[in-house]
Amino acid sequence: MMKECLLGKTLSELKQITTELNMPAFTAKQIASWLYEKRVKDIEDMTNISKANRSKLSEKYIVGAALPEQKACSVDGTIKYLFRTSTGKLVETVYIPDNERATLCVSSQMGCKMNCLFCMTGKQGFNGNLSANEIMNQIQSIPENEKLTNIVFMGMGEPLDNPDELFKALEILTAEWGYAWSPKRITVSSIGQIPNLKRFLEGSQCHVAISLHSAYSEERLSIMPVEKAWPMKEVISLLKQYDFTKQRRLSFEYIMFNGFNDSLREARELVSLLKGLSCRVNLIRFHAIPGVDLKSSDEQHMNEFRDYLNNHGITCTIRTSRGEDIFAACGMLSTMKQMDKEEN
Length: 344
Prior knowledge:
Elements: E1 4-5, H1 11-20, H2 27-37, H3 51-60, E2 61-62, E3 70-73, E4 79-84, E5 90-98, E6 101-105, E7 109-111, H4 120-124, E8 126-129, H5 132-140, E9 150-153, H6 163-174, E10 186-190, H7 194-203, E11 207-211, H8 217-223, H9 226-229, H10 232-239, E12 250-256, H11 264-273, E13 280-285, H12 299-311, E14 315-318, H13 336-343
Parallel strand pairs: 1-2, 6-9, 9-10, 10-11, 11-12, 12-13, 13-14
Antiparallel strand pairs: 3-4, 4-5, 5-6, 7-8
Helix pairs in contact: 1-2, 5-6, 11-12
């Protein structure tokens, strides 16, 4: 019989397990402490749980922490890790150290359904959702786990296309019985999947980053098929119903493509689109990917675009590109080649 993983279980799920195994009610909190505070790898290490109850637990469950299979190191200090999932598929995670800050870019799916033109993950297609165990394992099983200051759900996949498992992971990260992190340390990125975006905005105080990439609907549709299902104007309309003037931050991700979305005409439309929202815009250099006839904007265009937005009341920065040499930068994550090799 295949044993279930404890890592990735919420406190309510752990309570259900301890009830089914006729353990004392307080045991669930003890298990949560061992998993998320002490971060043990084996049930036998949960020493304040009786030997009999550890044995009972071990019959059906394992901790379920698995080390990455490979790592690639960039010249800029970025590290990309490769994890194998329970289905044998592969997923990538990126560790980005930056002075006092250490960010982990976490994946939520194997591949992605959204098929954005500029993204290698989208070219891979969709290979399945990650479980809360597989999401938490990326965070808990890297050697730099204790150094992490921030987590961004900007890896492979659309986080809000896997809402139940994402929300379990967010609960574990922010709950007192889990990591007890402030939601301010976590950012969830989305293309603007409206039903689950609403659910996220209602149920979480984590930061949100929306993939925008063009202020014009037709242009956005030409590179992001999702514009047809969830137009950006409707996404903006939803976002305007929430308060981003306090702790929670709203940002828009904007990859700059030469001659496509980097003109001052686009900048003016963007100012108009975002009017009334407390937000910031992150400009991102495009990293060339095979088979895509798009080029990155040059520095002059990016600087002019940034300055126009800042001069018109929208905080705008150019994000420093990290890990391009190991295909770890924005839009470059893909396990397609590794999976093809294994299948052949």
